[in-house]
């Protein structure tokens, strides 16, 4: 599965405890990462500063569902 255009659920719903450039303490669940662009792409995707946890996340139907809304719901529930 490829990333869905205009989704970004994985950059919003889960908490990230790893250091992110500009977010030294990571980010809380439900907070948009500062590197998520207006078109919902990661602006540090190809950077070595991208956290390993982000690089390791692979889009799969179990996490991403069939829509952005479903992905947000699934990832928010998993965060709980």
How would you summarize this macromolecular structure in one to three sentences?
The protein is mainly alpha-helical and 80 residues long.
Account of the 3D structure:
The structure is a single chain. The chain has 80 residues and is mostly helical. The chain has one domain. Helix content is 26%, strand content 0%. It contains 3 helices and no strands. The longest helix is centred in the last third of the chain and has 12 residues, at 68-79. The model has no long low-confidence stretch (mean pLDDT 95).
Low-confidence stretches: none
Seen as an oligomer or otherwise, the chain set is: single chain
**Strand/helix succession:** HHH
- Shape call: globular
Question: What Rg is obtained from the alpha carbons, in whole angstroms?
Answer: 12 Å
Mean pLDDT: 95
Q: State the secondary-structure class.
A: mainly alpha
Count of domains? 1
Counting DSSP H or I runs of 4 or more residues, the number of helices is: 3
Strand-residue proportion: under 5%
């Amino acid at each position: 599965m490829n990333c869905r255009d205009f989704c970004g659920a994985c950059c919003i719903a889960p908490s990230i405890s790893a250091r992110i450039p500009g977010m030294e303490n990571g980010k809380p669940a439900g907070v948009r990462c500062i590197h998520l662009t207006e078109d919902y792409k990661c602006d540090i995707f190809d950077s070595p500063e991208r956290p390993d946890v982000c690089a390791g996340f692979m889009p799969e139907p179990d996490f991403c569902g069939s829509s952005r809304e479903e992905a947000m719901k699934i990832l928010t529930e998993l965060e709980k």
